[in-house]
Specification:
Number of strands: 0
Distance between the termini: 93 Å
Largest sheet: none
Order of helices and strands: H
Strand content: under 5%
Shape: rod-shaped
Radius of gyration: 31 Å
Helix content: 25-40%
Amino acid sequence: MQALIELLAGFIIMLATAALAQFGVSLDRAAEPQPEVHRVVDRTPSASIGAPAETPRDC
Protein backbone atom coordinates (compact mmCIF):
# COMPACT_ATOMS: atom_id res chain seq x y z
CA MET A 1 0.00 0.00 0.00
CA GLN A 2 2.88 2.37 0.88
CA ALA A 3 4.51 1.70 -2.51
CA LEU A 4 1.27 2.56 -4.31
CA ILE A 5 1.00 5.87 -2.45
CA GLU A 6 4.63 6.74 -3.26
CA LEU A 7 4.04 5.82 -6.91
CA LEU A 8 0.98 8.06 -7.10
CA ALA A 9 2.80 10.91 -5.35
CA GLY A 10 5.72 10.63 -7.78
CA PHE A 11 3.33 10.63 -10.74
CA ILE A 12 1.54 13.73 -9.45
CA ILE A 13 4.87 15.49 -8.92
CA MET A 14 5.93 14.62 -12.48
CA LEU A 15 2.66 16.00 -13.85
CA ALA A 16 3.04 19.21 -11.84
CA THR A 17 6.63 19.62 -13.05
CA ALA A 18 5.56 19.14 -16.68
CA ALA A 19 2.73 21.65 -16.26
CA LEU A 20 5.03 24.26 -14.69
CA ALA A 21 7.64 23.69 -17.41
CA GLN A 22 5.09 24.82 -19.99
CA PHE A 23 5.19 28.27 -18.36
CA GLY A 24 8.98 28.39 -18.05
CA VAL A 25 9.12 27.62 -14.33
CA SER A 26 12.07 25.49 -13.31
CA LEU A 27 12.35 23.84 -9.91
CA ASP A 28 16.06 23.06 -10.33
CA ARG A 29 18.49 25.13 -8.31
CA ALA A 30 21.66 26.44 -9.87
CA ALA A 31 24.78 24.76 -8.54
CA GLU A 32 26.66 28.04 -8.20
CA PRO A 33 25.80 31.61 -9.11
CA GLN A 34 27.00 32.80 -12.49
CA PRO A 35 29.59 35.59 -12.33
CA GLU A 36 28.69 38.93 -13.84
CA VAL A 37 30.42 39.84 -17.06
CA HIS A 38 31.33 43.48 -17.57
CA ARG A 39 32.33 44.40 -21.08
CA VAL A 40 34.78 47.25 -21.55
CA VAL A 41 35.55 49.26 -24.64
CA ASP A 42 39.08 48.96 -25.96
CA ARG A 43 40.71 52.33 -26.33
CA THR A 44 42.52 53.16 -29.54
CA PRO A 45 46.15 54.03 -28.98
CA SER A 46 47.02 57.69 -29.13
CA ALA A 47 49.43 58.89 -31.84
CA SER A 48 51.80 60.33 -29.21
CA ILE A 49 52.03 57.03 -27.33
CA GLY A 50 52.81 54.81 -30.30
CA ALA A 51 55.95 54.76 -32.40
CA PRO A 52 56.46 57.82 -34.58
CA ALA A 53 55.33 57.43 -38.17
CA GLU A 54 58.68 58.48 -39.62
CA THR A 55 61.17 56.14 -37.99
CA PRO A 56 64.50 55.57 -39.71
CA ARG A 57 64.74 52.10 -41.14
CA ASP A 58 68.43 51.29 -41.15
CA CYS A 59 68.16 47.55 -40.91
